[in-house]
Amino acid sequence: EVQLVESGGGFVQPGGSLRVSCAASGFTVSSNYMSWVRQAPGKGLEWVSVIYSGGSTYYADSVKGRFTISRDNSKNTLYLQMNSLRAEDTAVYYCARPVISRRAFYFDYWGQGTLVTVSS
Amino acid sequence: QSVLTQPPSVSAAPGQKVTVSCSGSSSNIGNNYVSWYQQLPGTAPKLLIYDNNQRPSGIPDRFSGSKSGTSATLGITGLQTGDEASYYCGTWDSSLSAVVFGGGTKLTVL
């Protein structure tokens, strides 16, 4: 059974840093695409980042240069390192497994999410 | 403001049918497959439809998807109170090189 379990969320001041994690089970992270999607309180979904099985990474313009997606193959875990955090980064961060083809990009499994709050 | 446009809310009575629209452009819906997600209150999104009209294993055939040009539609028949949720459409945008979502539609089963 596929499971994604996020952790590491919390309260951080503007300009600060935080790393959230996503422990996967039931499949191998390094052999799959993996993504982060966030949802601000009371708002819709926003794609944040993806890491391909080959290691290539891509980011939404809103986080480019501030966030870094990575994985630890030995721990079967995905990470999102968030630096220079802003109030507008406050959201529930979901780990999700994308299915990607030439014309499709959708998420077949989602974690339960971890809340990141950026506030002074 | 979301790249894909959905109505903020829809409502219908139990047992009835409802549709949720999702409007985009040639750079997203017009040339790529659409997916739909259900988000029950306080929970993570769940995949309902992928590749415009395909249902993952375990999703009842009361849920259906279609696409025409730069718009997509989610249909739900035989409405149940348990269907009350927010529904999101999503796809790849070739111009933005990013996944884009609609703003979400809240379904109320009266």
List keywords for this structure.
heterodimer; A: 120 residues; mainly beta; 7-stranded mixed β-sheet; 54% strand; B: 110 residues; 6-stranded mixed β-sheet; 3-stranded antiparallel β-sheet; 9 strands; 45% strand
Describe this protein's structure.
- The complex is a heterodimer of chains A (120) and B (110).
- Chain A is an all-beta fold.
- Chain A has strands at 3-7, 10-12, 18-25, 34-39, 45-51, 57-59, 67-72, 77-82, 91-100, 105-110, 114-118.
- In chain A, the strands form two sheets. In chain A, strands 2, 4, 5, 6, 9, 10 and 11 form a seven-stranded mixed sheet that branches. A four-stranded antiparallel sheet of chain A has the order 1-3-8-7, with no helix packed on it.
- In chain A, a hairpin with a 4-residue loop joins strand 7 and strand 8 (77-82).
- Chain A is globular, with a radius of gyration of 14 Å.
- Chain A starts with a strand and ends with a strand.
- In chain A, 38% of the residues are buried.
- Chain B has 110 residues and is mainly β.
- In chain B, 0% of the residues lie in helices and 45% in strands.
- Chain B is built from no helices and nine strands.
- Chain B has strands at residues 9-12, 18-23, 35-39, 46-49, 63-68, 71-76, 85-93, 98-101, 105-109.
- In chain B, strands 1, 3, 4, 7, 8 and 9 form a six-stranded mixed sheet that branches. Chain B has a three-stranded antiparallel sheet with strand order 2-6-5, with no helix packed on it.
- Chain B is globular.
- The mean pLDDT of chain B is 97.
- The chains are: A mainly beta (120), B mainly beta (110).
- The A-B interface holds A 35, 37, 44-47, 50, 58, 60-61, 94, 98-99, 101, 103-113 and B 2, 31-33, 35, 37, 43-47, 50-51, 56, 88, 90-92, 96-104.
